[in-house]
User: Fold this.
Amino acid sequence: MRVLHAAAEVFPLVKTGGLADVVAALPLALAEQGADIRLLLPGLPAVMDGVQGAKTVIDIGSCFGAMRVRLLLARMPRTKLPVYVVDAPYLYRREGSPYQTVAGQEWGDNLQRFALLGWVAAHLAAGDADPRWLPDVVHAHDWHAAMACAYMAEHAASPAATVFTVHNLAFQGLFPMHDWALLGMGSHLMSPAGLEFHGQLSFMKAGLKFADRITTVSPTYAREIATTEFGCGLDGVIRDRGAAVSGVINGIDTEIWNPASDSAIANRFDAERLAGKAECRRALQTELGLVREDSALLLTVISRLTAQKGLDLLLAALPDLVTQGVQFAVQGTGEPALEAAFRMAQQAHPGKVHMHLGYDEARAHRLVAGADVIAVPSRFEPCGLTQMYGLRYGTLPVVRRTGGLADTVADGSTGFLFDEATPAALRRAVERALLARRDPAAWTALQRRAMAQELSWKEPAQQYLRLYAEARGATGPA
Ligand code: ADP
Ligand code: GLC
Assistant:
């Protein structure tokens, strides 16, 4: 089975969130199961610099407003998986995130930048970009790659099936309808039955309408996005796709996130040797200037600071929890108001609250290893990875019962769940953790159960392989 994964980001080259982790680890797990996997990425500066042995496959020439577009074939640095790179300097070689300028503005030409990605995927599927390798399935991730599904449906030149994975329905890739002509696509799709969404042009809809199979990253989120509460206006479209929509829970890279071999942390440990975790905890308190109290409950958060993540709830509960003996170690970047609020909390509670405004992978490992609990109080959470990192490191998750959080954490068994998106409900869940930690034997039992969870990509990869086979069946014999 040949599968092309098209996406905007991949760890460790370009990462703004969990999408990058998934696009790195899932293809590897699929390859380990014998599938023939290639990636397709935009030629962002870090991709151009980070891939190995790039060779030109085809000179595409000028398209989507760029004069010089080439398709390269290279290898990923760590996994050595083959990766196609769309080298379009005019569109991709710039400072900033894949989606925004350094100042946080969406790139004005995102329509062209991500239409090109989908268009190249469609040409690979049709066999006219690289006739030596034709995918059986194109697996497109999030709105950034979703146009592959529309171009493929439109041209129907390829027998390949399409699978579209929604990592976050809140980001949809909406553009003004008057830019339609830039897509090079017939006007018959300029309607609600096509890509139109409330007067705008929606890349997300390209995936939702035209993929043979739609997945999202947890079974609970798959049910949630079919409701008005979580559907972001697309719940009707999702309900219409019926049984073509399913949820496959993400795994984590259990080599990168392994407390028994993690070189980023103060001491290695596992479920049988938890003393090493206690040393990581002490090292972390020292590093962050937190009071070295064994009785404190050390709570960490590693997150984008956005409304999705519910960190305003944590801020509201924080003063009360500090007086009860909770220490906070937060790392994140995002909305300026949340950044400022956490900085103020640090100033108000010296030695009890530590805030690191920044993005730092190694530091994230030290936080996960050293903390007692990891909080993910999200309003919605398609899957969430940090609670799984917590489970693997015996750092018990305190999470809201939504999306993938509900599917990966068992209340009172491997972590602490709460229902209402209120500071009081979150506070009560943290209080339950405080209380539980007062009984060391019971706490160790919780940690061991958490650490025994199966979190690898093996089973999810098998589910995707079954889904690919189904999707191919849906498009007729390949
Ligand atoms: P989302 O993709 O919605 O941001 P996930 O939990 O799926 O949420 O993935 C977030 C990923 O980004 C995790 O790998 C997490 O460790 C990482 N991450 C988020 N913020 C930071 C940060 N400030 N420093 C290091 N890693 C971070
Ligand atoms: C998105 C979601 C997150 C998920 C990640 C990887 O960024 O917000 O919940 O874990 O994608 O699928």
In short: The radius of gyration is 23 Å. The first helix runs from residue 18 to 32.
